[in-house]
Structures are given as C-alpha cells and as structure tokens.
Amino acid sequence: MNKLRNRILFFGWVTLLIFPIPGFLLRYFFTETSFFSFFELEKFEFIDLAYGLELGFVYGVLGYFLMQAPVFEKIPNRIERLVSEMNLKWYDGLFLSFCAAVGEEYLFRAGMQFFTGPFIGAIFFVALHGYLNPRNWRFSLYGLIVLPFIFLIAYGYEMFSIWFCIGAHFAYDAVLFRFMYEEQKESKG
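Predicted structure:
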C-alpha cells in the first residue's frame, strides 16, 4: 500500500478525532459549555444537513469548473496532482471529506467562531488553509473563489446548526475528490 496514502488517511483520523478537542476546550474554559452542548447532538435536524449538502454540492461543482481556468494551471502542487500521487480510492475521498467536515467544523465553527464571529472566522479558516497567500496570487485567487462558500457556511452555523456546516463541507470536498478521482482514472488509461 502507498506510504503517502497511509499518511494522508492517518491525518484524516487526526482531523476527525483531534481537531474538535481545542474547539471544545475553548468553549469549555471560557463559556463552561458542556461536552454534549458543544457537539450539538440535540440540535440535529435532517433538513439542516440536507441544506448543507445541497450548498456544498452546488458550490463544489461551481468551484471545480472555476478552478479549470488556465490561470490555475501554474499552481505548484495542485491538489489533483497530489491526489493522483497518493493513489486514493473513491472511498478514501469520502472518508477524508467526512473527517475534514466533522473535525474542521467543530474546531472552526463550534469552537473558534464563537469568539471571532462568522466574518473573521471565515477569513481565518481560508487563510489557515493557505488560500490567502501574499506570495502566490494564484492561491489567493482560489481563496477568493472559496471565501464566499466559507462565509455561507459560517453564517449558516448562526442560522441553522453545526449540521448544516458539516453537510456543506462534506459535500464540497466529496465533489472535488470525485472529480479528481475521475481525472486520475482517465489519465491512467
């Protein structure tokens, strides 16, 4: 099995299991939020999840087609090249999408956004992903494409619940992985 693939799957588990911890600790120590309140299990509504999945799917398709513009071809380490090198399977993409959606949304939305608000939280989220990079204007251009989506997720947390955010993040990532997986299959024959 590919070492790089194993490493990225390991980081998926880390994201899923470890990333929510700092978000919870922030809320626990500064607002005395309980463990169960933080995870918002009592707020689960399928409609929130469905709205998030719909937003993520639509923005994922839109984002993918925008990223096919010639301006993005010169980005070093394009994600689709990295996915190809990792030899990820379609189910790996679903797993990693799930891990990122759950881990990152609990850290950023349920944890940090409580203190920063949705606007600053969204900018911070995009910047930490490296998409607002003053040394690479192409990455920053991609950041400007993804930023409205992250604003929608951030404000969706305020209007709906964490489940909206998890659904949107999962669908967006899963759509992009699916497109990349298909490209990888076509390029290999």
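Summary: The chain has one domain: 3-188.
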